Amino acid sequence: MSEPAVEPRPIKRLSETLINRIAAGEIIHRPASALKELLENSLDAGSTSIKVTVKDGGLKLLQIQDNGHGIRPLQSISHVARLSVTTKTKKDGHAWKCDGLLVPAKAGQSADPKPSAGNDGTIITIEDLFFNTPTRLSALRSSSDEYARILDVMTKYAIHNSKVAFQCKKAGSGSPELTTPANSTIPQAIKLLYGHTIANDTWKAEVYFTNANYQEKKTNFLLFINHRLVDSPRMKRAVEAVYTSILPKGASPFVYLRTVDVNVHPTKKEVHFLNEDAITDKICSTMQVTLANQATSRTFETQTLLTSHISTIAKPAPSRKGKERAIDVDEDEEDQLVDDQDEETDHLPPSKPKVYAHYKVRTSLNDRTLDSMFPIANPSTQLDAPSQAPSKYRSQPSRTQAPTPTQSAVASDTTSGGSRNIKESECFLTSVQAMRKEVLKAKHRQLSEIFEKHTFVGIVDLDKCLSMIQFSTNLYLVNHAAVAEEFFYQLGLRQFGDMSKLKLEPPPPLRRLIEIAVDAEVTSNSSLTKPQIVEKIFDTLLMRREMLTEYFSFDISEDGDVLSLPLLLRDYIPNLDNLPSLLMRLGPQVDWTSEKECFETFLRELAYFYTPLALIHEEDNPAPDTPPASGGAGDEPDIIDVDHPEQGGNPKQKEKERKEQKEHAEKWQIQHILFPAMRRYLVPPKSLLDRDVVQVASLPDLYKVFERC
Predict the structure, then answer these.
(1) Which of 185, 9, 215 is nearest to 193 (CA)?
(2) Where along the chain is composition biased (Basic and acidic residues) (predicted)?
């Protein structure tokens, strides 16, 4: 017997009280956010004096008193705390007090308003915040941390509303911890709350921001929208980036910005601008111009020392102790003394400032690198390193030997010197133009400077694709495979429609290469058999061979032979062992239905093919034999003798030498071709900073460690 069908349970509406608590939780996260609501309520009421009293970080008591003339709705707070309001207008003879607006009042008290004593204005008292939401209460930090957040909110509102007097203190404390007078200016409020230094070093250009003389450990970014304190993480990061080249590492600025007309987040905490990029660029550009104009001088704290020749010329002064010892010189005599000193020093050459050892930077590329510090067991590897294409098919242009040290220097110079420029092709396709703009838009300025001015130190681990570079006094660990993949994608986009060709002689059959890759894959999840997958990929590529030739210099004959591959970087030959995998991936991984997506996915797959990944040796993963090209049974392809085998000998020793030769050729190609080319043409995006470019050492920091030892 079949079981009776189970009907779905009806959806039950939550209680009104629970709905209100959930809604309040979206607005009130902690005592500081509750205070923000109360401050905006008081400011909207036209208050000129606001006093705040806090107990236990605002959890036990948060009271605000103002002299305004109105109350906004306080529903959010009243659902998660015990709320009482005492208010009085000028025309009333007494104040009115109300307890428990939207939650039950305390035992023995009525929720109806009742007469009370009070001054003109409003006193809002919040007690037992989050008493009915224990989960939210347990997630808060210590009372001291919550009180610090309250002071931070008060400070920011005091600067934005400099005409209003603010005061904040702990319950039971005799003196307030924050107080500002009424009718102040914004610079005066900044000076009072952040100190004299920041006020002297602040410039105004649509915003108030500090110059290079002010340095703080943490960025103080104050953003007010429609007189509401909000956050804009993207704008904050952009503003911080303006100061990266001005302030020393670890120093941060002060920025105060106010504007109007945005779509505000429901919590009124985080905002998103319409045309946010344009607005942010305009603000940052204005700040950069102002900072550049004011960068003619900087202020440093120094200690004045009396030079020996001044003390001998000046009149002797009576002996005094400590700091009271001085030199008595009349004004006229002092002016004459300065003139004489200028005449004496005019003929002297200008002295160079001393550069300490921990700030010296190696700038010569001829200095020793990491590889030169290790002896090479077999010197022939420097002369007879094999090509990185161990397949049976010859590639043109090909390199069957790694260059000698002299050739290496020449190749490095020509690659980085500018005689072999990679020009950007002229393309009128809107999709390609949009992709090029996206690359430029994602450019990270500081990372670009690192790659443009880096010094290659050495390859740390070839299997893990890790290399070391130096920029200034810092060392960086680079995942050269990830960086190269982005670099080759940009090269393909740069040369779109005008790429050089890497010819294959004899041309291998496309179908057989795809079969090799498909046979090595697990296709149990596919509804197609392996022969069906091969035919589908083969038909897809053969049908689009004209487009592949026109845009990517990827030539496939009518008979299905691969004639040539796109050559993205001169003198750089990709690992042709990965060619079957490339052809297989071009079928399912490329979006052939849309122009832009097709170009982008194809170039990504091509870049992955060019990426210098870990070498796969024959003893680890033997590759199946590739049949000869189409032709007679007696036609055999030309085979490149990459190993120079000798008659007899130990096979294991030969295999070891072959492995070392491959690794040497790969390292040479990465150091002398790839990194010099990236120095010129790479446009690094910020995403590389996540895990692919990591600072591992700083010379000044190392000196500090040595000084402590």
Answers:
(1) 185
(2) 641-663
